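Field reference: sequence -> structure
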Amino acid sequence: MTLYERRRRVGAIYLALCFASALFGIGCLMVILSTLLVEGFSGLSLAVFTQMTPPPGSGGGLLNAIVGSLIMTTLGVAVGAPLGILAGTYMAEYGRFAKLTVVVRFINDILLSAPSIVIGLFIYEVIVSRMGHFSAFAGAMSLAVIVVPVVVRTTEDMLRLVSNPLREAASALGLPRSVVIIEVAYRAARAGLITGVLLAIARVSGETAPLIFTALNNQFFSADLNAPMASLPAVIFQFALSPYKEWQQLAWTGALIITIAVLVLSITARALGGARTAK
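Structure field:
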């Protein structure tokens, strides 16, 4: 066998392995999605969005869990996204060549890959144990900690893509650096920044572990940030482990609602990213 034939044979083997791995991954994803669609759609009704989570053995909905997830996710993103944008702006605009940026980027990468249950334990020690009770505020803060590294990474990457001559042209007009960043760099990277925030929302929408350690759960409707609050991931976790068929059905339906929400956010983020690339 010649060297050329050997390389072609090895290349064909690697190509076949890669193709088989891709098919295996797509097959697993299709099985999960098809099971979720079949089980989730059978329980989807208007009552899911208008009724509270039921006691064992009776019908009900997920209204309090949906509202709780919206409240904590909105508050978490409202706190975490501005912090992430400001940190990413420093790394891309002010401290691009500073040693501090290298340190911040390293810590951010560690935080980005940290297990969410560890973040939940951290917020439990910092907020829950000091307040003496679980609360929606603590749950939102745990989500904010997860949001920050995602937004920091995307903000830095998007601002780095803005061309320097654009900044120099704005600076030549006598504009302060802060105005150049806000009016020029942010405008040029607007689609990328929005994409980063949407990806962060999709990231925290299905988080369960940090909410169990911080917001716990609530069988009733509550908009009080200083009290335990229901959330879709926590309710799904609780109902899926229960022996009651009504609760298990609601868990499937809740999982379907979260999946659809994350899918819509991901498609929107990719559409914005694609539009920016096209420009």
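Note: The chain has a mean pLDDT of 91.
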